[in-house]
Amino acid sequence: MNSGPRGKLAVGRVKFFGRHRGEVNSSAFSPDGQRLLTASEDGCVYGWETQSGRLLWRLGGHKGPVRFCRFSPDGRLFASTSCDRTVRLWDAADAKCLQVLKGHQRSVETVSFSHDSKQLASGGWDKRVMLWEVQGSPLQSGQVLRHFVGHRDSVQSSDFAPSSDCLASGSWDKTIHIWKPSTRSVLIQLKGHITWVKSIAFSPDGQQLASAGYSHMVKVWDCNTGKCTETLKSPILCFWQGVLNVAHACAFMPDGKLLVSGAVD
Length: 265
Description:
Layout: E1 24-29, E2 35-40, E3 45-49, E4 55-59, E5 66-71, E6 77-82, E7 86-91, E8 96-102, E9 108-113, E10 119-124, E11 128-133, E12 144-149, E13 155-160, E14 167-171, E15 175-180, E16 185-191, E17 197-202, E18 208-213, E19 218-222, E20 228-232, E21 239-240, E22 243-244, E23 247-252, E24 259-263
Antiparallel strand pairs: 1-2, 2-3, 3-4, 5-6, 6-7, 7-8, 9-10, 10-11, 11-12, 13-14, 14-15, 15-16, 17-18, 18-19, 19-20, 21-22, 23-24
């Protein structure tokens, strides 16, 4: 992880994807980087051609603001979540809705695919994490496999370990739970954030987990012991030209050597 002095960001041509009719809540690149998804407060999911910036589709169907979107690792599917309490599963080739996953009792805030793209986890304001079958047999596709209960507040983030044998969820209860999907048991509960946990990400080897909350720090955890091994904060995360930051997102680079965080600045 790079924690050296901040350098200048080299910016080339900037593309603007500006045909939304409401705030943009989430965005996600396809695995090959050729397409970009954006989830909007206007209730639609937008698909864009990355290089040209051309709008490929504007997908309705949700009955409320779209909170989150994500491609499956194999690039065949993408999912969107909404305040309408549903997850919509889409075919990435023709942008058709394949399934409307119903079961959450309140707004759905996060979704993540297992690394074999066969299962999907979702979480939201009902404090639950739900595990769905999405690429199994026709009779099982769209079925709920597991419910994970244990958080005391909204589930805002989720991520599968690379091996898919662990599922992590981050909550506004300031904790992260690492679950064993096959048994619904909590393997480890990570405590240490002083505010809501907004974003989590496993390292490529699955040995570490990064988490960002509504505070001035990103934490890195050992997934085997549950101990916090790094707390990255001021001045790197706290100030940019004198403006106080709050970390909202974090992600590892594919080689695991660099951890990137995003903030309100």
